[in-house]
Amino acid sequence: MIRFLTAGESHGPGLTGVIEGLPAGLDLSAESLSRDMARRRMGYGRGGRMALETDAVRFVSGVRKGRTLGGPVTVWIENRDFRNWEKIMGAEPGEEPQSGEPERAVFVPRPGHADFVGGIKFGHRDLRNVLERASARETATRVALGAIARTYLALFKVRIASVVRAIGSVSWDGPSEELWEDTETLQSRTLASEVFCPDPETSARMVEEIRNAKKAGDSLGGVFEVRALGLPVGLGSYVQWDQRLDGRLAQALCSIQAIKGVEFGLGFAAAALPGSKVHDPFLPGGAGGPRRPSNGSGGLEGGVTNGLPLVVRAAMKPIATLYTPLPSVDIRTGETLPATVERSDICAVPAASVVGEAMVCLILAQAFSEKVGGDSVEEVLAHFGETERLFRERVRPGGIR
Q1: What is the pLDDT of residue 312?
Q2: pTM here?
Q3: Where would you tag: which of 87, 155, 322, 356 has the fewest CB atoms within 10 A of its CB?
Q4: Beta strands in 237-350 (DSSP E)
């Protein structure tokens, strides 16, 4: 089974990711990851850190001559800003900062961040020990590993795309179903927007919303949508709670920093509708099996993919660092002070949509590897071809015996 881990701190030497369970013979190069890595650094409202980091990925295990070997694949992403933090974040014991040198210790937690709870949990007096790992800088590694998973999913002709649906009070209902099907055009229009919203008028309003928040020293959240097209029936399972694919996807998306809500298909809107307006009828479809005129389920029924596009949205809260900080306390003295201001973004919803894609790719890759197995690309494709053949027979009228 495909599984993965990440490691590293925001201002440490670099970030490491390990993914194992990939078949041997999968074409893979640093260049194939560069598009997603670049997209994560984009978006109006990002902070100065994105101008400094290039997020170039280097393979340090598991790949030879552009192909996977079957063992764990390890990626390394250098933190170029570490040169400015080496005395603060270096691993070796060091001297106390000299007079005039910044200590950069953190004793005043930011409301909404992991600073306070992490300090209590691990007993860290200097909350920098918390924020360095809790930081969303870690998602650079997830995007790299997600891009690898995307390459694996391409074996099954699965396509994944995302758009930003809302920032602050500005929202958009699109794109059309036809545009979602044309993922290349959709991605081109999305990248043409500073906030990854393909609608120019809404995009301009979102930019203005972020601009106003920046003037106020505030931050903004929003909503993004991810879709996966080309999924077969049968990924995931209803047999155990932790095998349900909607639960696994929800956990993966909620694990992204600042994500506070996830919905599939009609999502929360379904709670206000009668069942007749929510569930997707089966209609005769001939030898190809029954067809569905709607997709209120978002492509999942009983925790299992049903052959329709996966539709999932995630809600991101505003970033916890405010340049007009909220009240907080010094954990050493209890004194009331403004919350710590750490260099940060005003809005990172566009970047979060890229991270959301990565997490969807990783969970779907796991589900495919569970379903079809295979130690090499050749085996994987052979197993998948046989699974497709069986399912084509089963969906025909009378095909299940």
Answers
A1: 98
A2: 0.95
A3: 87
A4: 259-264, 300-301, 304-306, 310-316, 327-329, 336-338
